[in-house]
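Students often ask what a 'structure token' actually looks like in practice. Rather than answer in the abstract, let us consider MADS-box domain-containing protein, a protein of 157 residues. Its sequence is given first.
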Amino acid sequence: MSRKKLKLAFISNDMARKTTYKRRKKGIMKKVDELATLCGISACAVISNPFDSETEVWPNPEGVNKVMERFKNASVLNKSRNVNHESFMMQRIVKAQNELKMQREENYEKEITLSMFQFMQGQNLPSTVEEIKEIHKMIEKNIKEIENKLAALHCES
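Now compare that with the structural description of the same chain:
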């Protein structure tokens, strides 16, 4: 049975916010415990309590210190495998920029191809020298592709 979508918003009622905090904190602690038990890993949780100055830790302060020390002493290779949010977002940005660049190049090539076909039909004459040069490059590229295909066909027969 699926749950309805949860609306994430600040809970303005103090009592409701405190009870929700306690309930969700308990749920997070349970999930961390399950993760550590089922996967056989060292895990910890540190939760800053907004209602008093205590910071709550799981399983205990010594366990948290042990896990944090192990993380701090991890090799550079392991640290690079543990990607943080900032580096993840930077990777996504670089990937999106590369995709955008490739799409722009593809669109430009399609525009030149369309201009070439329109020019060949006498519909739209190129207006600049640069446009003529680009059409010439496209024609040369197409001729080379045709020659390569013909050579491949002659090799097969």
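One point worth highlighting: The longest strand covers residues 45-48. Ask yourself how you might have guessed this from the sequence alone, and why that guess would often be unreliable.
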